[in-house]
Amino acid sequence: MPGKPRLLLHVCCAPCSTACIERLQVDYEVVLFWYNPNLSDAQEHDLRRSEARRYAETARVEILEAPHDPERWDEAAAGLLDEPEGGRRCDACFRLRLRVAGEAAAAHEIGLLTSTLTLGPRKPLAKVAAAAEEALAGLPVEYLPFDFKKQGGVDRSLQLSKQHGLYRQSFCGCEPSRREREARSRDTLTRRRGPRSAR
Asked: Angle, nearest 10°, between helix axes 88-107 and 125-135?
């Protein structure tokens, strides 16, 4: 009997990988791929990578890694830093990460690729799939458009992350997304407090 087809899963973080790996392992031999140059903060990058490695060991899956090169992300996102999360900056980010993932898949003779990105609430499947179509042009790799948000994917990832004590970040990864998250948190806090009473 032939074995399961190999599939490269681009991983944005360990918590997102949990439910994705669980779902994919039913039908595929999953190999993880770590490449997230959007993480310009080296400490944050290394922490997330360490957690991805730790969970890969727990899930008994191989993990491949590309060097951390935030300068390449800076080039891809040039002129787009003021775009809101979910806008053109994210499109450029998806294309870069999926291109490098596709090149890794081709180098390891893995013909299928997908990404944990679609678990994120601000990352619609249509946008990620469109970026993948552009990114994989000319490569012998097929993108499989799984929408991991569906079928309770987010809740399952939260459950598994808590079960395994995984670090859960509070922002997507790039510095603009961190600033947006902090601004949203301040706005939420201000609304909860309400207007200050006049003195």
From this structure: 50
Q: Are 102 and 113 in contact (CB under 8 A)?
A: yes
* Domains identified in the chain, total number: 1
- Asked whether residue 69 is domain-assigned, the answer is yes
In a domain, 1, yes or no: no
Instruction: List the structure tokens of 182.
Output: 């902090």
Calculate ∠ Cα 86-90-93, nearest 5°: 165
Q: Give strand pairing partners of 63.
A: 32
| Predicted local distance difference test score (pLDDT) of residue 190 | 66
- 35 burial (CB, 10 Å; 0-12 / 13-18 / 19+) is buried
Residues 108-137 as b or e (16 or more Cβ within 10 Å = b): eebebbbbbbbbbeebeeebbbebbeebbe
The answer to whether residue 137 scores a pLDDT higher than 50 is: yes
- Quick one: tokens of 151? 């079928």
Determine the Cα–Cα distance for residues 97 and 11; give it in Å rounded to an integer: 10
CB 7, CB 28: distance < 8 Å: yes
CB 59 within 8 A of CB 29: no
Contact yes or no for 34/54 (Cβ under 8 A): no
Query: Per-residue pLDDT tens for 79-135?
Result: 999 998 889 999 999 999 999 999 999 999 999 999 999 999 889 999 999 999 999
